Amino acid sequence: MTSPLHDADRRPFFIFGCPRSGTSLLTRMLDSHPNLAIPYETHLYNRVYPLVRRYCDLSRPRTRARLVAEILRTDPLTKWSPRPSLAETIAAIPRDDFHGIFEGLMRAWTRRQGKSRWGEKTPPHTLCWRTILAGFPDLQVIHLIRDGRDVALSHKAAPFGPKHVYAVAQRWVQYLSAAEEAQAALGEPAFLPVRYEDLVAEPERELRRICTFLGEGFTPAMLAFHNDTITYPTDRRNFDNLRRPLLSDNTEKWLRRMSARELRIFEAVAGAELERYGYARSLRDPRISVWEAASCRYLEHPPQRALAMLRNRQGYRFTIQRLRLNARIRLGL
Q1: Predicted model pTM
Q2: Cβ-count burial of 182 within 10 angstroms (0-12 exposed, 13-18 middle, 19+ buried)?
Q3: What is the rounded distance in angstroms from the CA atom of residue 235 to the CA atom of residue 159?
Q4: What is the DSSP secondary structure assignment for residue 188, as one 8-state letter?
Q5: CA atoms of 268 and 262, how far apart (whole Å)
Q6: Secondary structure class of 14 (helix, strand, coil)
Q7: What residues are paired with 151 via a beta bridge?
């Protein structure tokens, strides 16, 4: 086995996938491997990098140190267990750019776990793949795909994200398109598609396939991820599922719970993508008119989204912290 204390800079890997596709499940499975460390989400490339790119000169050590301190105060990073160390993160930064800060954060945290290799999972980073690839040209990507109709149902129950099936269908297509572009750029040796349905039906087979892709040995501990005592700071429903043995029947919920109209709208928007990824359509020729699409987008979805946002306390913290960080970065930290 590779020495875990001196090799946390081994080839990094990222888990891509649309939100509510099972990426948290895969994260907990892989984090149970003795070599692999995957913390809670970072949201650094989708929320912080756009600000830093415009306003920060990271060639200055003092600016880098201040930015790291600000990053460690953001809501996702305060939920990591254990909390990242400011001093260790700064000491682990290998280059004077944003990618170096990100790498230093991941390296330092991985070494604190006594592990040898870091991975990262933040679903919106799927849309940032070009930026991430520029910083980590030797990366590997595991792309988790789930039936978009079940993704839509999961979004309705989540405290964040779109709440209307029309908006979720568009998001699902957007994420698949971004992942396909990344796959074309990276090629087969660096990109592995995994279907959520296959993962829950045949977990050992799929985890062995993932380990082979990563060049790691399979360990049964990954199948016992639910015994991990570390709290994973996701929403309550997701957390409860992660504390149980694998839910092998957590598929095709849309057959029972999706209304006829919701099904028609989703398949009208994303039917081609369903078929391309091996999910059979239930309707032969679903249609959505221009007027109905406009109603979904501008009349039906906004109040549903607003109500969900009012109930989402975590969203309030994200917004306040983003405004604070935005102001700090614009003022030169």
Answers
A1: 0.91
A2: buried
A3: 7
A4: G
A5: 10
A6: strand
A7: none
Q: How far apart are CA 326 and CA 333, in angstroms?
A: 10
Beta bridge partners of 15: 121, 142
Quote the pLDDT of residue 233.
62
Per-residue pLDDT of 26-45, as tens digits, reads 999 999 999 999 999 999 99
Q: Which CATH number applies to 13-330?
A: 3.40.50.300
Q: Give the angle subtended at the CA of 128 by the CAs of 122 and 131, to the nearest 5°.
A: 120
Question: Apex CA 123: angle with CA 69 and CA 212, to 5°?
Answer: 105
List alpha helices for 32-164, DSSP H: 49-55, 61-71, 75-78, 86-92, 98-112, 129-135, 148-157
**Do β-strands 36-37 and 140-145 pair in parallel, antiparallel, or remain unpaired?**
unpaired
The count of C-alpha atoms lying within 13 angstroms of the C-alpha of 13, restricted to the half-sphere facing its C-beta, is 25
What are φ and ψ of residue 37, in 5° steps?
-125, 120
Cα separation, 107 vs 10, in Å, equals 9
Q: How far apart are CA 86 and CA 117, in angstroms?
A: 20
Q: Could you give the CA distance from residue 39 to residue 28 in angstroms, rounded to a whole number? A: 9
Alpha-carbon gap, residue 114 to 314, rounded angstroms:
31
d(CA 142, CA 127): 14
Tokens linked to 159: 């405290």
CA distance 75 to 73: 6
Nearest to 329 by CA among 56, 86, 58, 96: 56
What's the average model confidence in pLDDT over 48-72? 92
Extents of the domains making up the chain: 13-330
Looking at residue 296, the DSSP 8-state letter turns out to be I
pLDDT at 313 over 90: no
Q: CA-CA distance, 96 to 82, in Å (whole number)?
A: 25
